[in-house]
Amino acid sequence: MKIVIASGKGGVGKSMLTSALAMLFAKNQKVVAVDCDVDAPNLAIWLGGVKRWDKTLPVVTSAKPEIDLNKCNSCGICVENCKFEAMKMVNKNLKLNPFLCEGCGACEIICPVGAIKLKPVQNGEIKIKKTKYSFPLISGQLYPGESGSGKVVTEIKKEAEKFKQEVMLIDSAPGTGCPVIASLQGANFAILVTEPTPSGFTDLKRVLEVVNHFNISYGVVINKWDIYKNLSQKIEKWAGRKFLGKISFDKEIFKAVANLKPILKTNLRVKKEIKEIFKNLYQLW
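User: That's the sequence. What structure does it adopt?
Assistant: Structure tokens below.
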């Protein structure tokens, strides 16, 4: 069973929920927790932090052009046709801005003298840790300025597949972009987390379009439900039988994560609420 925890909007509590569900599932099943928010991975923090990772693996899923200045005749055709403005001429010498380059390969194709060749580059890394809660955590990081977040997510999931498991919990990036699509591919179920704000509800509907595209069953969770009770009721009614539960707003949650204390190791109300969501998750299946 592959469960993706997703949301259209950031900051709605995906990682908090993922960490707690992983600990609950691990009591009776073989679990692997996967952090697929490669731009800002933080699942490890919600699990109590990691002082030292067991293993770090390079990810090479991107390429950047390499310029042979001995062949380049400074014609400027690549500069004119680079849609990302990563190429420019400086004193008749071709220069590449790697932070603007998307590695599309247009410059290699269009160069009339063959002075440009795409070369693979390491654009991220995968980290692995056996947590003290008896399950492995696989986390990925896209390097700053690099592209290919969706491809990095795919590599993370491949690494996670190598572990014996009954349940894979995937902490997705927010939004509906490439890393989210890569997270949802091959999933059996999606938990969609939202908050009772107009933007939260709108973005929930947007990510649901992606979930429905892949024909994935789903359930809905409202975090901070009590900051706007009228909208929470509207979302709960909209979700119908897909509604899994709600989590209250509590400033003590932020103190817990700041002290690297997992939610299930606290006595906060959210602990009981997530256990209820866990129970409803089984019933919805």
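The chain has ten helices and 13 strands.
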